[in-house]
UniProtKB/TrEMBL annotation:
<dbReference type="InterPro" id="IPR029063">
    <property type="entry name" value="SAM-dependent_MTases_sf"/>
</dbReference>
<protein>
    <submittedName>
        <fullName>Uncharacterized protein</fullName>
    </submittedName>
</protein>
Length: 217
């Protein structure tokens, strides 16, 4: 293991956080109405130039220090527009769509009710950590999460190529273009030495995929 950490790990992809990528994509922008869907403790909107900030989450209310408002709405019924406006100027939905049964409705509303920028991240369940769960007979445990008021889980299996194809198609249907894309890598363990020799090995290293779309015109 000491040999691995000293000589092998430096050559493997570095870990990248999806929130860091989101902030980099949106750096320098300004929006009137912005919402963080599934934002939990609202770590993003207070770091961006947004006049009216909202958070919407299944479980936790926003942090008391959050300078915006909390919306209470069931995402199975889609995403509403802000009252008295033509739509959101910024929508962030990081690792939330896979928790919703009616994902088609939600994604259609995210794009359909936005007139500016959309950032979406999805997990890649072809990543090696999910494969380890499969081999050990505990695949289902990879998709269940303990939260303050009970339990949550993934409703969908999200694969690397499927994520790209689906979101790009949905965005195009609503008049959006992909302007930024990045991937979060997660590496640990000697298992990666084996994965390096697999075909399409990139799919097994990428943990999250982050997409930034913008409305045309």
């Amino acid at each position: 293991m000491r040999f691995f950490k000293k000589y092998v790990r430096p050559w493997l992809p570095k870990e990248i956080d999806r929130h860091q990528m989101t902030l980099r994509f949106l750096s320098g922008g300004h929006w009137n109405h912005g919402i963080d869907v599934g934002g939990r403790r609202s770590v993003l909107l207070d770091k961006l130039a947004v006049d009216r900030k909202y958070i919407l989450d299944f479980h936790n209310a926003a942090d008391p220090k959050f300078s915006g408002d909390t919306l209470y709405h069931n995402l199975e019924h889609g995403l509403p527009k802000p009252e008295g406006t033509g739509g959101w100027d910024l929508v962030i939905a990081n690792d939330v769509i896979e928790h919703v049964e009616n994902k088609q409705r939600l994604v259609d509303d995210i794009f359909g009710n936005c007139r500016g920028d959309v950032v979406i991240s999805l997990p890649n369940t072809q990543h090696f950590i999910y494969l380890k769960g499969l081999f050990r007979g505990g695949m289902s445990k990879q998709f269940v999460f303990d939260v303050e008021d009970g339990m949550d889980r993934h409703r969908w299996i999200t694969y690397y190529d499927d994520n790209k194809a689906w979101l790009n198609r949905k965005a195009a249907e609503h008049g959006f273009d992909l302007v930024d894309y990045d991937e979060g890598w997660r590496t640990d363990g000697a298992l990666h030495l084996l994965l390096l020799f697999l075909r399409d090995r990139r799919k097994y290293f990428v943990f999250n995929q982050v997409f930034h779309f913008r409305k045309r015109g």
